[in-house]
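Example record for the data management plan.
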Amino acid sequence: MKRPAIVLCTALAVFTSPVLAQEDMPMGLPQPAKELEKFSRLIGYWQGEGTSTQGPNKPMGKWTSTSHIRKVLGGHFLREDVRIDGEGWPAPLQFIQFFGYDKKKQRYTSVAVSNMGTAERSEIIFQDDNTMVSAGVKFFQGKLVTERWVTKFGDDGKISFVGHEAIGDGDFFVHVKGTSTRIDGKPKAKIVDASATMSEPTTEMGKLKGLIGTLRFKGEMLMMPGTPMMPISGESITESLFGGTVLQTVINGDPTEGVSYHGWHALVWNPRDKNYVSVGVNNMGENAFETGVWASNTELLFTAASPWYGGIPAVYSGVMKCAADGTLKSYTSHAIIGTHKPAKVFHIDYSKK
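Corresponding structural encoding:
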């Protein structure tokens, strides 16, 4: 069962790199998008129930869920922690997801990780004030799966949703159907259980064990070509989630001109594409989805194309260097910003706290 997708450069954390605000960062952080008010009805604790099936003509099984949705990162995102327990499941299905609004592209987005070892970024469409729609494709057990999710807000305060899937060239069928009701107070059971996993950790995720822990970072970054590098520093906390299938990092930058960077990032392994996938959000309203591969035994390379400060088109490559034991040592990024020549735009060194 998959959770409905209502659900920087690799991070100012384990993999720090320069995702920059579109507004004047030195004058203060940008304000949250007004469009996020459409999500305000989701805030709170929720109890859900419904049915699901893994294929057409297969039996439907019952499930129950508990979730918590609240504003985070200065109000730029809503975070939802989800736990879903199903009949006969070996473990509860779990999601951590963030949804927000991309001001530049003027669209609703979400990023999410699960204890199946997956990471996703999705677009959300508000068909009307009470209906959200998202769609996507994935590969499952070697077959192409097309899916669509429809979430509706009811006048009674409840939320209903249905997910349809089509496997290969087959017809669409109802994969998941259910409702959620807001509850008063905090549930007694823990929603996100970091030890609960639905898949086994891969050898590739095992290579990243040396990144776990609390680190201090210090270095510099470029705001604009032709200007001096700006000093940056802070702390990152990396931990293993869901049996080692996900690495989560929380970043807290030291104040610079009265402004502090805060971000959340996660890293998983994509076995089909044979690369790492990184997703992240921050308190500048940005979200990221990136891939990485090992360039050598101690260097993990990330590449991306994303807007630079002020929305200037840019491409970059970032190299995360580790010691022989896997301990994170540094991160350096080079970029081509607009029509400028390639230049080093970011460098930080890490040390154990």
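Summary line stored alongside the record: The chain has two domains: 34-183, 196-352.
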